[in-house]
Amino acid sequence: MAKKIDRTGEVDINRKERLKIPRQKVPKQQAEKRVLNFDEVYLGFDAETAKLEASRCLQCPEPSGCAGGCPLHNDIPRAMWHISRGEFVEAAEVYRETSNLPEICGRVCPQEKLCQGSCVVGKRDYPVFLGKLEYFVTDFERRTRGIPKPVLAPSTGKRVAVVGSGPAGLAVAEELLKRGHAITIFESLPMPGGVMVYGIPSFKLAKQVIADKVKFLEELGIEFKCNTTIGKDQTIDDLLSTGGYHAAFLGTGAWIPTKLNVPGEDLKGVYMATEYLVRGNLPPEYLPEGMQTKPEVGKAIAVFGGGDTAMDCVRTSRRLQVQAGITDGTVVDYYRRSEKEMPGKPEERTNANEEGIRFEFLVAPVKFFGDENGHVRQVELIRMTLGEPDASGRRRPIEQQGSNFVVDADVAICALGYNQDRMIEKTTPGLKVDKWGCFLVDKETGATSKPGVYAGGDAVTGADLVVTAMAAGRRAAIAMDKYLSSL
């Protein structure tokens, strides 16, 4: 028996016995039922299974594995210890020490590549379900006690403008508020939340989870100004010179879709992923003008891409088909590499398969064909082979000449990634960006080339993760606090 003084002063961690505990199954809606709704697929642990699953944690003496694999360095073993003892609120508080959005990260982070992928138990068995336990305890706390309000420092008299209400913006806003600064968040869309509301479907992340967080921040004193586009309605210089703000943070994300650049892409029925997901998942009051109707529902839907956004699109498509009464429709995801190279979460592909999605690997679109009304009806594809790895580390797809073929498609969705909106760059003298339009910053502080202006998240890195954006916001808050204190 391995002896160890754990964080609560207790002893006798029997790791051999813990390794014998089987992994607990996370209940989820049956596929035939969940395609009828947009409710969260995973139903979550109950108290007893959560305690049992957390008891699989070996309480490593040096927990650099799971904690080191988390961009926020959450003290995961300490949280697991509390959960195993039924101390769910205490576990939630462990997560809130280092994370502003644990109930969201637990749902959408690719734990297989981060904390869970570094779990020592995974070397002998399935790793501990760290993400599912994270949102179980933080949901428990929200339901029973609410998100605990922090003690705020006395007012400094300094005001900060945060542009964008995604994970980076919410994190920097909360952390600066704790330090006594007044915060206004500017959001171009009708509702706060950024990618967490407008990019992630409700069957992965219920909108109420974000709404609860926004309400919490409003009650703390953060002001939200939606339907306000910085760079158009006001500039950064306006905010800093005449707006009364002493500093600004740019958390504008990455929203401009990458196009296929093939003939016929402008046909009716061909959608970019964000527009399709926004219109397919959200009620009209959440949507900007011109997007307040549902997208078309096709009988033969083709989706192009291999990441989580593509999986969001195929699963949204299936739900819209079923709800429209199209029982014999098809949704096919076409990807130019093999399944091994797909960058998204494996569990998302599993869920898509269960919901009747078909995958075609090693194919790429060449051309869309339309009818006399200018509506897409077919797509020409070409088969690929894999060559040597490219800059991403994945094998480069190579066209097989003469392998072209045509399939039916009355709706097509392009989910190939995102680029930067250049509006703020163009309206902010002295603000430097790279060739892709990402803001150039000091990696440790988030400081841009313009004094008093900081940036973080996808606006700096390109499209990435909720957790990395949040971590960037937290780092920037520390640096911004020092800057504001020097004024």
Named CATH topology of the largest domain? FAD/NAD(P)-binding domain
- End-to-end separation: 57 Å
Looking at the structure, what is the overall shape?
A: globular
Which stretches of 5+ consecutive residues score pLDDT under 50? 1-5
CATH C-level label of the largest domain? Alpha Beta
Radius of gyration, taken over Cα atoms and rounded to an integer in Å: 23 Å
On the 0 to 100 scale, the average pLDDT is 94
Spatial strand arrangement across the major sheet: 3-2-1-4-16
What fraction of the residues are assigned to beta strands by DSSP? 15-25%
Percentage of residues assigned to helices: 25-40%
* Class by alpha and beta content: alpha/beta
Q: Tell me about the biggest sheet?
A: 5 strands, parallel
Report the count of strand segments. Answer: 16
- The tally of helices reads 18
CATH-defined superfamily of the largest domain: FAD/NAD(P)-binding domain
Number of domains: 3
CATH architecture tag of the largest domain: 3-Layer(bba) Sandwich
Notes on the structure:
The chain has 487 residues and is α/β, with parallel strands linked by helices. It has 3 domains: 15-144, Orthogonal Bundle (Fumarate Reductase Iron-sulfur Protein, Chain B, domain 2), CATH 1.10.1060; 159-255 and 419-485, FAD/NAD(P)-binding domain (3-Layer(bba) Sandwich); 262-416, FAD/NAD(P)-binding domain (3-Layer(bba) Sandwich), CATH 3.50.50. The chain is 34% helix and 16% strand. The chain has 18 helices and 16 strands. It has helices at residues 15-19, 31-34, 47-54, 64-69, 76-84, 88-98, 102-108, 130-144, 167-178, 195-198, 207-220, 236-241, 273-281, 308-323, 346-354, 423-427, 458-461, 466-485; strands at 159-163, 182-186, 223-225, 247-250, 256-257, 270-272, 300-304, 330-335, 358-361, 363-370, 376-389, 395-399, 405-408, 411-414, 418-419, 453-455. The strands form 4 sheets. It has a 5-stranded parallel sheet. The protein has a 5-stranded parallel sheet with strand order 6-14-7-8-9. A hairpin with a 5-residue loop joins strand 10 (363-370) and strand 11 (376-389). Helix 7 runs antiparallel to helix 8 (130-144). It is globular and about 65 Å long. The termini are far apart. The relative contact order is 0.12.
